[in-house]
Amino acid sequence: DLVPEVDVSTLQPLLSSEVINQLLGKYMTTLTSNIIGWLRKALETDKKDWKKDQEPEADQDGYFQTTLPAIVFQMFEQNLQVAAQINDDLKLKMLSLCLQQMNSFLSRYREEVMLYKEDHLKDRQYPQFYIQYMIAVVNNCQTFKESVNSLRRKYMKSEIEDETTIEATLEVIAKEACSYLLNEVFLDLEPHLQELMTKKWLTGSNAVDTICVTVDDYFNDFARIKKPFCKAITNEAHRRVVVEYIKAMMQKRITFRGSEERKEGAEKIIKEGNQFRFLFRKLSTGFGEDVEVLCDAIPALAEVLKLTDPSLLCLEVSTLVNKYPDVREEHITALMVMRGDANRDMKQTVIETLLQNATHPGPNFQPIFKDILVPSMSLSKPV
């Protein structure tokens, strides 16, 4: 009714811009404190869940998760919606605040996950569902990443500088959680890895059968990790199993006595390399990964052991070095100690061949021997 008598455009604002800015400043300060409190409470609630005597919930695709990402982003979303109704400037300030607090929150999340792992290592029977909740941590990182990107698309026209920091931190947390999971596997494998290349191994040990069954069993749970981390943990498990097996060959645990024992040992190594190949082909299904290169290193070493004519060692070693340029002198020495029939002169000849055939790895080469240390060992003098 007042419209005809009053020109609204001539009215002064009810509040001065100074007062408005003060109010908005107080609002942001209070909200910052509230968000910090809410995030802390959300993390404390999630930590309690990690110790439950039941598995975490799974999403519709069967991937383990906790409610933490949903709670955090529901809170962010509600505050952003309120800010967006006031004006664009406040909306962008709110988004910036949410992303800053997300960064701080992720640092705490990372620390708590590490403490969870350390507590578990004091007694590996507890918590009962440690593996499943650590998998949920990996998957939560992927969900956090997707949710951050969703907020940016919805509330921001241009990029904000913390973008890469948040994504990098999430990547670190997920990779660390994956390494904690793999460490669990290798703690269980340790006694069986120690049995490799011993007299017991040669005379009928089933260590590799147990290794394959154990890895396969863990991966029943690891299959509930989202891509791309499921692919990454599978590749790393594959690499570590092969590296640990080759390490065992380099430890001077066994020296073959005679050609029959060499043949028997080499054939067992080839058979076990094929067991690993079969296992990781199965685990890598759908990833489009070439599992052959890593597993091929095992029979390639076995061929050096299997050779009946020592004079052909130079040829076999040059073939090995061409395929695996990171093979070093000490690796060849370890193989010749394992053979049991090579003296120092033969070693010298083979090492000269190794140096002559040294090649530079190609751009896609995956180093295998680079991290395999060999204890110092010597060969016998020629008789």
From TrEMBL:
GO cellular component: exocyst; Golgi apparatus; growth cone; membrane; midbody; perinuclear region of cytoplasm
Pfam families: Sec6
Main localization, broad class: other
An example Gene Ontology biological process: exocyst localization
One MF annotation (Gene Ontology) recorded for this entry: SNARE binding
SUPFAM superfamilies documented for this protein: ARM repeat
Location in or out of the cell: Cell projection, Growth cone; Cytoplasm, Perinuclear region; Golgi apparatus; Midbody
Keywords for this protein: Acetylation, Cell projection, Cytoplasm, Exocytosis, Golgi apparatus, Protein transport, Transport
Reported function: Component of the exocyst complex involved in the docking of exocytic vesicles with fusion sites on the plasma membrane.
Quaternary structure and interacting proteins, as annotated: The exocyst complex is composed of EXOC1, EXOC2, EXOC3, EXOC4, EXOC5, EXOC6, EXOC7 and EXOC8. Interacts with EXOC3L1. Interacts with BIRC6/bruce. Interacts with MYRIP. Interacts with SLC6A9.
PANTHER family: EXOCYST COMPLEX COMPONENT 3, EXOCYST COMPLEX COMPONENT SEC6-RELATED
Listed name of the protein: Exocyst complex component 3
Organism: Callorhinchus milii
